[in-house]
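Quick start: what a row looks like.
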Amino acid sequence: MATGGEGTRYETFDTSGPEDDLIPQQSASMKIKIRGEKSIERFQEKFGTLPEYFVQVPGRVNLIGEHIDYCGYGVFPMAIEQDVILSCRKVFNNDENCLSTLQITNTQRQYVDYECRLDQIKHILCSREEGKGPEWYYYFLCGVEGVLQHFSLLDNGGKKLPSLEISLDGSIPQSAGLSSSSAVVCAAALATILVNGIRMRKDEMASLCAKSERYIGTEGGGMDQAIAMLASSGTAQLIEFIPSLHGEKVFLPSTAVFVIANCLAKANKAASSAFNIRVAECRLGTWILGKRNGIVDWSNFNRLKDLQRYLGFSFNDMKALLDKEIHPESYGSSDIAEILELNTDQLSQKPLMKKIPFESTRFELYNRLKHVVEEAERVQLFRKACEDKNPGMMGELMYQSHWSLSKLYDCSHPFLDTLVKISEGSAFGARLTGAGYVSKFTN
């Protein structure tokens, strides 16, 4: 604890320690207080008092390993200086029958203030209009709801929980592939456990936040939340999800400089089903590979890496299996149902398939799985290139990754492709980072 202006106490979460530690609570440094000035100012303006706590969560850039976390494969992100910072206060009501509330405001005035009861959040999230990008505060609601459900905090109807007053300030560019939305989810979850006196390990919180963000409708794999919790200064992290979530620090060559360039094409992955279709293509392809290899419970293998481990296959074995069992042409829903010996209605009712226009979609199974297997292998090669201090090889792998994302995964954009081409001859390598552009092109 540290004393702030006018005797106010400040407390902040620090996510820089070992990944298996509890998330520590510590006195806010002067650097944190300076970074939080805009948030404090907006908090005072909105709530008429000073905040009690800070929560700070970084954005991230993924160096390599795109669209493979939800297939169970390792990824290679690092945290960046741009972040989300919250000023927070918990408020208790003397009336024990009074229901607890959340009030949230944003330092960027184009974003409207929001207020709701804590026991209403799940209904609000489940009632969101499909096909429309969520309002900014929906991501915050995801983080709060995740904690409320995980710890069954609403069992008494939410009457004895503290209410939350929050001011948010973010410096992460939005829709730029740098995880601004996941940073908000993580910050919200951290604020909720803080005001309720809950302690958690970082890896546990990362898993909880990954699950929480799915309230928004996208079936992400957990990379963004993991690096937000496990990041350490001066290193990237090789984050693995199987057999359990863990991060390994990887030091980058001291002569390497990573430049993040924004091509200014925006896509909100929660505004359409395009992202979930990519996840579904990987899952359907995995089921087909399992089925054709005689696995009776093939539907239990939702992630390709789980299937690879079960079969004991190398990356080369997986490539050969893919070439043998799945053709390059697209599949219709009836084609897949026939292979899996199900009717289309049965298959369309699988949990993920209910989130996409299943029967009208043409699924590019071969291209998606080819990218996933080769990208997973590139992550391991990238790690070795880092250990060998070989920026030339690191760059070549980044170029390979980009064109795989552009041609096989169909999630780049002409602006992005142009940036990558411009970099040739003046950089070791360049690639798309983040989910990319998984919806129709717009300028």
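That is the whole record. The beta strands are 2-3, 9-13, 25-27, 53-62, 77-91, 101-106, 114-117, 163-170, 236-240, 246-250. The chain has 15 helices and ten strands.
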